[in-house]
Amino acid sequence: MFACHACGAELELGLNSVIGRRDDCPKCRAPLHACRNCAAYDDSRQNGCIEPNAEPPRDKTVANFCDFFGLRKGAMAARQEDQSARARSALDALFAGKRAQGESAAPADPKERARKALEDLFKK
Fold first, then answer.
1. Bridge partners (DSSP) listed for residue 3
2. Please, are residues 1 and 8 in contact by the beta-carbon 8 Å criterion?
């Protein structure tokens, strides 16, 4: 089963499973000859492709002239969330338990925050 990278619609290619550069998805009109629809596409790689000789285009969702293109079987995996957001949520989860153990949130007034930080520093 072949699917569109943009909408996930199943593609009926019939006997001819070759995708041309100008072929579009019949449902959402997204270009099918795009990196995100290729079997060699790998988001974790530097250029987004496991083929070392392929010249990477800037936009992986538009049609390209890549000679190494092979239509991906199955639906495209969902994009991973941003790494910085994932790290931030892990830090929040790590320090959430510390606040729950009795530490209150920092006061809004800068003078009060500074006084509380000084008291916490010299606390025995």
1. 10
2. no
